[in-house]
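Hi support team,

I've been running sequence recovery on a batch of backbones for a student project. Most finish fine, but this one hangs at about 90% for roughly twenty minutes before it completes. I'm not sure whether the input is malformed or the queue is just slow. I've pasted the structure tokens below so you can try to reproduce it. Let me know if you need the job ID as well.

Thanks,
M.K.
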């Protein structure tokens, strides 16, 4: 079968023939229909310090996908051939305290699809049946392929009660934009999303009705006043990994506010913890999705009318992968999808 493989100690991926996977009793074989490129995949493409120290080559990469079940193992009862599915890419173990307590998203023995084991940028993928999530017909193939990052947005955004609250989101990448859409959908009063990239802010306005803000061109205090905020934002969602953005967010929070941290800084940052303490802020770090509650909530949000399709800005055939990755590296795209049919 065809697959996109990291097989060089340098920039890029290779489209090549690899062995079609076989399944065991508790696994399913999925024929891939649509995949999406994640920031992790971009790190692997660019072969930065993290990627070169983490990925064991050769490795088929990719973890955002949807497809159809082609074959099921003899012990699989809840799934059937022909079902449209996606899957949780964090494959948890069963021995840790958290895993035994049902907190699968906190299992330290988790194996990551497309990073620690062969991934989804291929014509076929083998997955444990317990990780597979059936998709309703109302979810298109393209949206089905971005449920992994959508799940990150759901996990972060629904960490706190948002009804009637004022929400600041720093970082208008796809996850930040989807978070803004979720916050609006569940009843936040005001939502402000910030970024230094005007193209990303324009994309945000195509996905939701949140206010937008570029900190290099506008004054945040003046923006808050124009929105009617007197004391600060109740909820902060930090999606950028930027030291400056996090510092600005802390300054803009109300006393006793709550902040979810999803953005990963590229290196160590200076952070004034005293500001957090004297404002009595609550910080929550977000990693992945709460398995499988986030999947349930996310699909329920989509079923209730939440529309995230416009965060997908470009679609390519998988053979055009080089153009797709170069576009993402340019910073001029939202979610980019690769079709495999």
């Amino acid at each position: 079968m065809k697959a996109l493989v990291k097989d060089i100690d340098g920039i890029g991926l290779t489209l090549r023939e690899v062995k079609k996977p076989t399944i065991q009793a508790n696994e399913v074989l999925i024929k891939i229909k649509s995949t999406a490129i994640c920031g992790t995949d971009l790190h692997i493409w660019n072969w930065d310090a993290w990627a070169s120290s983490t990925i064991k080559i050769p490795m088929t990469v990719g973890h955002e996908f949807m497809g159809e079940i082609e074959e099921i193992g003899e012990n699989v009862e809840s799934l059937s051939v022909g079902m449209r599915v996606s899957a949780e890419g964090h494959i948890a173990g069963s021995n840790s305290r958290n895993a035994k307590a049902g907190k699968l998203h906190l299992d330290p023995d988790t194996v990551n699809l497309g990073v620690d084991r062969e991934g989804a940028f291929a014509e076929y993928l083998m997955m444990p049946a317990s990780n597979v999530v059936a998709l309703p017909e109302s979810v298109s193939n393209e949206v089905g392929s971005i449920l992994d990052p959508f799940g990150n947005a759901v996990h972060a955004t629904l960490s706190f009660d948002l009804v009637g609250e004022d929400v600041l989101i720093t970082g208008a990448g796809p996850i930040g934009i989807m978070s803004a859409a979720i916050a609006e959908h569940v009843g936040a009063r005001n939502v402000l999303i910030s970024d230094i990239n005007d193209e990303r802010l324009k994309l945000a306005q195509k996905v939701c009705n949140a206010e937008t803000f570029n900190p290099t061109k506008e004054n945040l205090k003046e923006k808050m006043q124009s929105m009617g905020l007197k004391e600060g934002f109740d909820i902060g969602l930090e999606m950028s990994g930027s030291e400056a953005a996090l510092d600005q967010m802390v300054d803009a929070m109300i006393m006793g506010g709550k902040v979810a941290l999803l953005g990963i800084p590229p290196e160590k940052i200076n952070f004034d913890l005293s500001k957090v303490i004297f404002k009595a802020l609550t910080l929550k770090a977000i990693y992945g999705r709460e398995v499988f509650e986030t999947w349930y909530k996310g699909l329920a949000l989509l079923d209730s009318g939440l529309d995230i399709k416009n965060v997908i800005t470009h679609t390519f055939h998988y053979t055009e992968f080089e153009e797709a990755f170069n576009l993402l590296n340019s910073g001029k795209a939202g979610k980019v999808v690769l079709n495999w049919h």
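--
Follow-up from support: It reproduced on our side and the slowdown came from queue contention, not your input. Residues 25 and 73 are 4 Å apart (CA to CA). No action needed from you.
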